Structure formats: structure tokens, C-alpha cells
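Our working data are protein records whose layout never changes between entries. Getting from the letters to the C-alpha cells is the skill we practise here. To make this concrete, we reproduce a full record directly below:
***
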Amino acid sequence: MEIRHLQTFKAIIEAGGFAKAANHLGYAQSTITSHIQTLEMDLEGPLFDRLGKTIALTELGKSFLPYANEMLRLHKSAKELHQSSVTKKGKITIGASESLTVYRLPTIIQAYKEKFPDVHLSVRMGTCEEIQHLVEIGDLDIALLLNLEFKKHPSLETIKMLDEHMSIISSPGNMQPNSILYSESNCPYRMIFDKFMDEENIIPSSIHEFWSIEAIKQCVQCGLGLALVPEITIQNELKDGRLSAQRIDKKHGQVASFLFYHKSRWVSPIVHYFIEEASAYFKKEEVQRKQQEVSS
């Protein structure tokens, strides 16, 4: 069982076929077929069902996929060992929710790049479920997400960074209080909004769903309804008077920023330093928040 055979196996799944995988990897299709046949001989069973021009993983293929991902992760970590520990060079893939990508990560990345200019950072933005899945399968080294008390996955190491303030926002001059603007349907803090509406006896006359917080803010400014967003995303709008906000009490639920990575994956020095930089940033934010609360 060779690494190139595992790479071919994963490429077929991601590309959706043998021909597309061959094109992506730069192999002849016969080579792709040979790689899979060798794997199937080692595993003593078929990995794919070939249904005309389409393919699907067999039960054996589905069972083997996590092992293939793990072996590819270990191979990548082994290759990066010398490079990252000695030269402080390499690549880190980071996942984050929209609000943290826009309002938290830039400051962390700026401080990190000043110390490690030769490290290449790749950032991927997505929903909580998407980002968590990508960490689980090894496509991301590390991730930052906003969540409720985090659903701990046995394969993930999670570190709580900071409790985040959440606010109900509305337009100062043109509000439709019974129109509700939600984040995507699986938004982790949606239940907080629902609890708030129940206590305030708000019965939505219309509900709208958006993936983007920036889109939600624009719609609220136009008077299209109420929304729940992290306070870090509305500082400029509050200063300019474009939005009104009511902070949600902790009794409704607490949202926090979490950093997490795969427990079984080797944490290289460059990833370790990124964790340290992120932790220092959030610690500074916490200190500044306490100072503001004392002064007010």
C-alpha cells in the first residue's frame, strides 16, 4: 500500500471519477485504474461500484476512507517535520466562520506574519459544520469558530478563547419588529435568538435566512427586521448610528470563540506558534474588555 495509491483513491472521490482524477493528478487513466486495483487486492475487496459513467464508494470504500485520510495526514506531517521545525517555513491551512475571518483573524495573522514571514497561510471561510468536518478529515490544520458550549468531538482538541457578546440589532428609524433575519438554518446560536423572542413575546410574521452576516446587517439597516449578531461585527454601525443594538443577557445562552485542531495530528512548530499568537490576541481582548467595564 503506497502513498500514491492513497492519493489516487482520495482524488477519485474528490473529483467524482477516474478520468477526472487522472487529469487532476497528471496520470494516464490506466495508471489510476492500476492504483485502485492494487489497493483492492491489498484490502481484498472492491472500493468503488462502477455504475455506468458514475462511481460510488462501496461499504469497504467508506470504511477505508478514514484510514486513508489518516495515513495521508501522517505522510504530510512527516514531510513538513524538518522544514517547519528548523527553518520556520511551511504552510498552515486555517478555517473560520465569517465573523471571525473578517473581525478577528486579520489582527492575529498580522502579528503572526511579523514573526514568521516565510509561513504561507491559507484561510477558508465556512459554516461551523463545514469547518469542523474539514478539520476532522485533515484538510485544515486549525480552525476558529463561534459556538455555544462546543459540541466536543472525540477526535478534536478544543480550546475556549473568549466569551463573545451577542446583540439583537434593528434599524434606528424603520423597524419591522416581527420580521426576523436568521443566519443559516444550522447556525449554532439560533436557539438563543428563539429564546429571546419567546421571552419578549415576539411572534415572527416573516422569517428570512442568510448565510452572510454582512448581508444581514445591510438588510437590517434597511428596516427589514431584527437579527442576532456578534457585537464584534457591528462596532462601526453603532458608532455611525446606522444600527441600534440590545445586548443579549447570558441567561439566554453564551456564545464563545473556540480554537480547535485534530488530536491525532502532529502539531508542527509553526502551528503551535499560531495557537500561541491567537491565544495572546484573545487574552488581550479579554483584558481590554474588563478595563472598559470598570471605566464605565
